[in-house]
Amino acid sequence: MPERVVPVGRLDADTTGALLLTNDGPLAHRLAHPRYGVEKVYEVEVEGRPGDAALQALAKGVELEDGLTAPSTVRRLAPSRLELTLHEGRNRQVKRMLEAVGHPVRRLHRNRYGGLTLEGLEPGAWRELEPSEVERLRSA
Q1: Of 2, 30, 75, 83, which has the fewest beta carbons less than 10 angstroms from its beta carbon?
Q2: Has residue 140 got a pLDDT over 80?
Q3: Tens of pLDDT along 63-103?
Q4: What is the Cα–Cα distance from 71 to 62, expressed in whole angstroms?
């Protein structure tokens, strides 16, 4: 019987970036479950120019219909571009958070997942993880 490979989490159809695939069910659970707080870093282009109040709200946590989000790290990259680091992974969370602070998402890209980057990979390309990377994910 062939091994079953599953994605760790998901990306919306209009979101680009890092997506992990694994045949290790317990590792997939550990990486995707909010309890473990695995870091996911997004680069976000938004409508308008978020001010300090919007950035502070994102950092503290935003009230959504399914409850308050966990605090996140926010960094301004340009007037309409932010880097947002989350430790939970609710459905469409980044888009809903930015909508809630009045700055809908124009473009969303996940550039890091659990410390792994896309460095050296072209869009659509993939690579196998080094054993040391897998061990780091298991212990994260």
Answers
A1: 2
A2: no
A3: 999 999 999 999 999 999 999 999 988 889 999 999 999 99
A4: 8
Give me the chain's average pLDDT, please. Answer: 93
Query: Which structural domains are found in the chain, ordered by start?
Result: 6-119+131-139 (3.30.2350.10)
Catalytic residue numbers read 12
The confidence score (pLDDT) of residue 37 equals: 86
Tell me the pTM.
Answer: 0.91
Contacts of 116 (CB under 8 A, 6+ apart): 18, 20, 129, 133, 137
- CA torsion 46-101-67-109 (nearest 10°) is 10
User: DSSP letter string over the chain?
Assistant: -PPP-EEES---TTEEE--EEES-HHHHHHHH-GGG---EEEEEEESS---HHHHHHHHH--EETTEEPPP-EEEEEETTEEEEEES---TTHHHHHHHHTT--EEEEEEEEETTEE-TT--TT---PPPHHHHHHHHH-
> The tokens of 48 are what?
């308008």
Separation of alpha carbons 137 and 65, rounded Å:
31
